[in-house]
Structures are given as C-alpha cells and as structure tokens.
Amino acid sequence: MNRWLRQHWLAAVRAFEMLTSSPTSSLLSIVVIGIVLSFPAGILLTLDNLRAVAGQSLESQQLSVLLDTKAASDDIERINTNLEKIPIIAYFQFVSKEVALQQLQQEAELAEIMRNIEQNPLPDVFVVNLEKVTVDEIEMLRTAILSWPKIAHVLVDTDWARKLNAILDLGRIIAIMLATLFGAALVFAVFNMIRLQILTRGDEIKVSRLVGATDSYIRRPFLYFGAIQGLAGALLTWLILAAGIAQINRALFELARLYEATFRLDHFVWLDSLALLAIAVGLGWLGAYVSVTRYLLRSDSI
Amino acid sequence: MIQFMQVSKVYSGGFQALQGVSFSISAGELVFFIGHSGAGKSTLLKLIAAIERPTSGAVRVGQLNTGTLKRSMVPYLRRSLGLIFQEQNILYDRAVLDNVLLPLQVMGMESKAATARAHAALDKVGLLRRGKANPVSLSGGEKQRMCIARAVVHRPSVLIADEPTANLDAAYAQEIMTVFRSFHQVGVTILIATHDLTLIENRSRVLQLYQGKLAQ
C-alpha cells in the first residue's frame, strides 16, 4: 500500500473508531440527517412523479386539424402528404365533412337538430395522433400546421399541461430552496458534531501537531467522519422514502383502480439515488472541513 | 545547527520572556538551559520548535528560520525534532506502543516497519515489555521514558526536553539522564531545560537564563 493510500486508510479507520466510540450519539446524528434530507428529497421525488404523470398523458395527445370550407380535394391531398412527412405523428385519419355529418346525425341527442340543417356546417378534418411529445413540440407543430394554406384551425388542449408544468416548475424551485436550507442545516449539524468530537480529542490533536502532523493529517479522519455520517444519513433518507412510497402506492393502487387507471409512485432512478448520496457525502465533508479548519486556525500556536 | 540572533519574545499580555538572546549550538552538542522559573527556558525551546514565534530577531534551525517559517512548513520542521515537555502529552486512550507509533504514522511510515521501529525505541528506554500496557499503569519514570521513546522513534537530529525530570525522584531522574546520554553518544543534538543542577555533567555546555537574558 503506498503512503497516500495508507494515510487515507488510517484516517478512515480512525473515523469508524470515532463513530463506534459513541454509538448512540452517532446513530442519533444519522437519524437527524436522514430525516432532514427526507423533506426536500421527498418533495423532489413527488414532483418527478407528477411530471411523469403529465408526460404519460401527453403520450396520447391528439390534434384536430380543421380545414377551410373552401379546401378542394388537391388541397386535402397536399395536407395529407405534408402530415405523412412529420416524424412525431404516430398516425392520422381523414374525416370528411360528409362522414362527420353522418356521425353526428347518428348521435341520438343531436339527430333532430342535424336533420333540420339545410347546409353541412362541418369542415373536413384530419385527426392526428402524436408520438410521446412535449408541450412545446405540440405547440410548434400546431403553429407549423396553421401556416399551411387552407387550414382553418388546429385544435389541441395543451393548456392543462402548461399549467401543470408551471406548477411543477414552481414546486421544483420551492423544493430546491428547501433543499438548500436543509442542506445548510446538515452542514451545521455535522459542523457541531465534529466540534464536539474535536473537544473530546483535543489532546490527540495537540500531540499529533507536536510530532509533526500536518493540518491535512489532522483534518482527514474528521472529513471521513463527516462524509460517513452524510452517507449513512442519505441511505436512511432513501429507505424512509422507499417505505413511504410503498405505503402510498398501496393506497394509490385502490384509488387508481376506481378510476380504471394505473398510477404508482416510483423511487429515484439509480442516478438520482447516487446524486442524493453524493450530495449528502459532500455536505457532511464540508461541515467537517469548516469545523476542523476553524479549530486549527484558532489553535495556531501548537 | 541552531542559531539565535538577538531574539526577543514578548507575549500578548506584555510579558517579556526573552530579550536579545544570541547563541549557536552545533550538531551533536548536549546543552543544558538553566535558570529560575520564568527565566525564559521553555519559551526558548518553544521558539526552536515553532510553537512560539519570536517578536524580533531570528531563530534558525538548520536552514530554516522558524520566525518566518510558513504555517504549512512547521510540521516538517517538527519531524526533524524530538520534543519532550513537562506536561507529558500522553494519550491515555491507547496503548504505550500506539503512543510511540504516532510520529511514524504521522509521517506515513508502513505499518510493519513502524512497529519494528517503535519496538526498538521502547527497547532503548527499557519499556519493550510494556508495549501493550495502558500508560495509566506506568510509573512516573516509565511515562517519561515512554515520552522519550516517542520523541526519538522517528530518529530526529535534535532532541528537546523541557524539565524532563520534573516530578521524578532522584533515581528516576538519573535513569532518564542515562537514556539522554545514550542518544547523545550516537550524535543526536540534545537540548535540556532544567532547574535541577544535579543533572548537569562536568563537560556539558550550560547556558544560563536570567530574566529573559543570557548570562554566560
């Protein structure tokens, strides 16, 4: 083992010794970190799931392209050709004004009214079904189709998705603000834990400095200690969220069944889980770094 | 090897511990600093180890000026020194061997080699069999010998001892001096601050401090 690795190995061992030397307070600290992180992580997770629901609904998005009443058969043919070239369109169907009228006349509630109309008021329509797309893509497509000749209207309902997205964006900002606040709380919590550890290890630090320990050498076990606490706290957060999701999904299953839908909350994907762990480790490390460095600078004489 | 050039030290409360002190010590010398309590002996040794910085003048240890030495370089200076202080700075939560291993761990020495060195140092001070003991179980003389083992385990070129025999009876004090003499014989520079004149040998160099000034 080379010198650098050996120093880090020793520091990690010392950090575990610190953790196990006061198991109750270490466990309590980890629980506090786990709960503190659960708030912002839970909100972010909920928002991600809501966004996924919004995404699912957009998968089955449909456009109605209403043609000008003066559109001739070659106009219809040209529009048909143009629609075929658009990759985000899954399939489409042409419904002529005559077919549309017949369909309306077959509807029991509208049959009487439609029979009394002398002239067919309905336009020719292309009913367009889209692949999984974003709201912005739908809006761009709508604008593009509207610019074609002989197009009267393009009907699509994306307002609800826009509103939901705006709410989710707002929620995300709030969640990030909360995450920042709770992250700072985590840094302060670790800072204080390390401060207490330093107080109990003042002699060890003093002697180490007298025999030639560098600041890095003294700081290292505390950095590992902070990072381990952050990691353990984040793992607890992950488990708290997993338990919460399992409980909520049980209730959601019943609710979704009543609406003949399938909706369930998903946990973080592995990359998000890794990010959660990395952020907690980083914050634990930061709290420890600030705490030890402050101590070392204040006790500069030895 | 060690040079004091017009060194003065005034503590923050205004107390002048040293005033215009100048002297040189060559490699391999055994030097006693004597003087009454508060004469400046401890301050002088702390200046060598950069535990304190001079208010004016210069302290040189080898090529290093400890007064202007960067904070980050101080540990490397201390690795060339062996420090034994009146307050023994013993870690009671670990065994004697682990106390002695500390300087080697700090330097990043490989575990097997470090343990062998620590055993050799403990052997030198007659504590080889007490390696696994807790320092609480050691007598006063044994504790001081353990501190000496810790101070020499990394083979420093200079050994600095501040009142190493304080709180020890005459027999223990002579035992400690025998250990110092054995290191001096192999070329280690030894600086001892003491008020116990019985420790001083005839051929040794003695620097007397009086109210912060050198009275040779």
UniProtKB/TrEMBL annotation, chain A:
Keyword Cell inner membrane: yes
Transmembrane segments: 27-47, 170-191, 222-248, 268-292
Species annotation: Nitrosomonas mobilis
Homology family: Belongs to the ABC-4 integral membrane protein family. FtsX subfamily.
Domain FtsX extracellular: 62-154
GO cellular component: cell division site; plasma membrane
Record's keyword annotation contains Mitochondrion: no
UniProt keywords, alphabetically: Cell cycle, Cell division, Cell inner membrane, Cell membrane, Membrane, Transmembrane, Transmembrane helix
Known function: Part of the ABC transporter FtsEX involved in cellular division.
Membrane topology: Multi-pass membrane protein
Any Gene Ontology biological process: cell division
ABC3 transporter permease C-terminal domain span: 177-294
PANTHER family (alphabetical): CELL DIVISION PROTEIN FTSX
Subcellular location: Cell inner membrane; Cell membrane
Protein name: Cell division protein FtsX
Automatic annotation (TrEMBL), chain B:
Gene Ontology annotations of biological process type: amino acid transport
InterPro entries: AAA+_ATPase (IPR003593), ABC_transporter-like_ATP-bd (IPR003439), ABC_transporter-like_CS (IPR017871), ABC_transpr_LolD-like (IPR015854), P-loop_NTPase (IPR027417)
Boundaries of every ABC transporter domain copy: 2-216
Spans through the membrane: none
UniProt keyword annotations, A-Z: Amino-acid transport, ATP-binding, Cell membrane, Membrane, Nucleotide-binding, Translocase, Transport
MF GO annotations: ATP binding; ATP hydrolysis activity; transmembrane transporter activity
SUPFAM superfamilies in the cross-refs: P-loop containing nucleoside triphosphate hydrolases
GO CC, alphabetical: plasma membrane
PROSITE patterns: ABC_TRANSPORTER_1, ABC_TRANSPORTER_2
Pfam families (alphabetical): ABC_tran
Described purpose of this protein according to its UniProt entry: Part of the ABC transporter FtsEX involved in cellular division. Important for assembly or stability of the septal ring.
Family to which this protein belongs: Belongs to the ABC transporter superfamily.
Protein name: Cell division ATP-binding protein FtsE
Organism from which the protein derives: Nitrosomonas mobilis
GN (gene name): ftsE
